[in-house]
Design goal:
It is a single chain. The chain has one domain. Helices cover 72% and strands 0% of the residues. The chain contains 3 helices and no strands. α2 packs antiparallel against α3. The longest helix is centred in the middle third of the chain and has 35 residues. The protein is elongated and about 60 Å long. The chain starts with 17 loop residues before the first helix and ends with a helix.
Length: 104
């Protein structure tokens, strides 16, 4: 569903991982901009899932679609993607609050 890759490079004691960290250190703004673009794309996908679920419910109620299993499946997919999006949002808000509470 949501593929969020913040390009986090682990730093291990003893110097391993330092070369990779130094290589990505100068591209922080570009990585952040790319992460924001990807997050925007994922929000659009969640919106498409919600609209698709709404359309399938409307078709079921109108009698155009007789397969209730596909409707339930689409609604469940939209619900799970929305819950995941809310979870990501909550983690981002929590990280922002922790950053704002850091002493200068």
């Amino acid at each position: 569903m949501i593929n969020f890759n913040p390009n986090v490079v682990p730093v291990r004691p003893g110097g391993s991982g330092g070369a990779a960290a130094a290589k990505t250190q100068g591209t922080g703004k570009a990585d952040f901009a790319e992460a924001v673009k990807n997050l925007g794309k994922q929000v659009q996908k969640v919106d498409q899932n919600q609209q698709s679920a709404d359309a399938s419910i409307t078709e079921l109620l109108a009698g155009k679609n007789q397969d209730i299993n596909s409707v339930v499946s689409e609604v469940a997919r939209a619900d799970m993607s929305f819950k995941l999006l809310v979870g990501v949002r909550n983690k981002l808000v929590e990280a922002y609050k922790q950053t704002m509470n850091m002493p200068i």
